[in-house]
TrEMBL record:
Gene3D superfamilies reported in the protein's UniProt record: Vaccinia Virus protein VP39
Single annotated GO MF: S-adenosylmethionine-dependent methyltransferase activity
Biased composition (Polar residues): 1-19
Organism in which the protein naturally occurs: Leucocoprinus leucothites
Protein name: Nicotinamide N-methyltransferase
Pfam families assigned to the protein according to its UniProt record, in alphabetical order: Methyltransf_16 (PF10294)
InterPro entries the record matches: Methyltransf_16, SAM-dependent_MTases_sf
Region: Disordered, residue numbers: 1-32
Record GO cellular component, one term: cytoplasm
Amino acid sequence: MTTPVSTIRSQPSQSNTSLPPGDGNAHEHDDNPEDILFDALQTLYDYQPVTFTSAGASYTYTYPRSLTSSSIKITLRTPDTDAVNWSLHASSVWIASTQLANGINFLRIDHHLQRIGSGGDGTKEDPERPLRLLELGASAGLPSILIARVFPDVSVVASDYPDSNIIRTLTQNIRDNGAEANCHAAPFGWGTDPSPLFSLGKADGVYVGFDLIIAADTLWNPDLHSIFIDTLQRTLRRDRHSRVHLVAGLHTGRYTIDSFLRSIRGVGFRVLEIMEREVTAAGGGEKAGSRQWDVARAEYEEEKDRRGWVIWIEICWEECYVS
């Protein structure tokens, strides 16, 4: 029996947050009716949008300058899908995607690069092996493209459902933003054979599994949790240092997220950390307010509060190393 093929994307999920006036970093998008509505919600009601842009619209994200690098401007074309795949919700940039980009420091990529280079014990773990990162449900590709630009030594594979329009737009976004040297677009349906993914990227030879897997808003459909977990099992490198980082907007629903957390346990994985983090402007991930995950908030939180937070989940194998 063939396993169903699907992408898991949080219903409103994937995207960058609009920045407050005067913040110095602007998210730019086309002036279409949906974009105007998103801006109006934020301006009139102080509601944080959960999605930005519509199919075919452009979106610009600016990652601020740091002590070690200049600012990075990424301009994306939002994918459209074939008509039969409208339910993928891939034709927007969702807030979880922008928050994942804002908080790339939480991925501790520098630490992983150093570990591979030194083996963690003063020896070379594998001097020929690159650090490999996979994004599931990449859509427009914001987190993958940003990571590839900030960390040129990381081999990035940005994957999404094998819809020709999604993959074409994702490939073009990678090329247009100068990330093609170490970032590759790949069609991939969850539950299918992942081995073609292992040969992609900045590597000589085939390395089974990825050191890091990221995904934004891929938990919204509980019917797809089992196939998503199966995909994580088949694509995460079997190593005690390997990590999965998931970001989900609360439009996903606290009970749906809780259902996923219960499903992930007992299948070889361990939930290393789950935090609620405030929605921030570009580059402000580490300055965001945070609090412990609590499913009980579903009983009393209001829509405005729900829109102001995203959930960060870090997963590892049961035998994982905790630094």
